[in-house]
């Protein structure tokens, strides 16, 4: 076991060498004791099998902190954030989690996602049209493509009117900034009080939208969740609200960073870029390989030991917090041959941990795959001269551990 109270895991600078850091931890043991920015001591799991064990054993490890021993304080959560994320599906254990997920899946079906494919393609084509219309043929691909693609898809999916898209983007950025693994300042220079006020406005807006959709449902996902029924049960307004917040947190920043990470990975591996250009049918496997190689979700939601137990040979006390480092598990050499090499033809790439594992595996994984495949194939086919406009050594990473992604990616085409 490695114990460290001074290991930098969250700064933007540390993100550039994160895989090396995880490999160093894992070479000593697949479990390490570290101190997080919140001051809490946490067990980090950097091994693949150990991460899977943590994420799938709901008897020994809970997502709720109700098992924390008396006297151990958890960080305070603002009321607005608690209303959105407290008791959400991501923070529930089976059987409560099972009930909510069954209801959500009744609306968010594979058939529903597949029906979105032409919508995603049309949005992607419009964004590329805009890129091609620029006379300078250079742009920040994150700001002009990777951000608006999932934002527009999500807005359409939830039934957010076009007139409210700018506000929705701000709200989504604020929700994504609620990262407990980093000490980032509020976006846009906003004070914490301003942030909470905007989140309160988001809550009020979605509350009103849910009521409107119940009264006059459409083809959007909020209508679907409001009307979904399983075993005679329906989601309450509060559950739909929390699910919308979870979709925003889990479906925007993740896909935005995935697109940026994939393009960066291809720039750094020109042989793989040339291969995908020549064989676009490899896109599906390429997305899974890049979810393994450069996934956008770095760590799991925390788990808490429900009892004194042993994991990876270490004694874990009841109530202690554990986190699976998904990015590290997906590069575990005990699971993947030559894990630090990008290979878009890799057999078994889909066994990555990029979407988590177990009952809490990412609900939006099918949609993220569709968006990733369409984004890659459209960019490479319509922008045949796509190339980096800066040295790849100068790319800046987002601070914090929850999401992994570049803050900007200047390109020319």
Automatic annotation (TrEMBL):
Concerning Pfam families, the annotation shows: p450 (PF00067)
**Gene Ontology molecular function terms on file:** heme binding; iron ion binding; monooxygenase activity; oxidoreductase activity, acting on paired donors, with incorporation or reduction of molecular oxygen
Instruction: Give start-end ranges for the coiled-coil region(s).
Output: none
Q: Does the UniProt entry include the keyword Iron?
A: yes
Record keyword Isomerase present = no
Cite the InterPro entries for this sequence.
Cyt_P450, Cyt_P450_B, Cyt_P450_CS, Cyt_P450_sf
Q: Which UniProt keywords apply?
A: Heme, Iron, Metal-binding, Monooxygenase, Oxidoreductase
Q: Which family does it belong to?
A: Belongs to the cytochrome P450 family.
Q: Which PANTHER family match?
A: CYTOCHROME P450 YJIB-RELATED, P450, PUTATIVE (EUROFUNG)-RELATED
- Name of the protein in its database record: Cytochrome P450
Task: Supply the source organism for this entry.
Answer: Saccharothrix tamanrassetensis
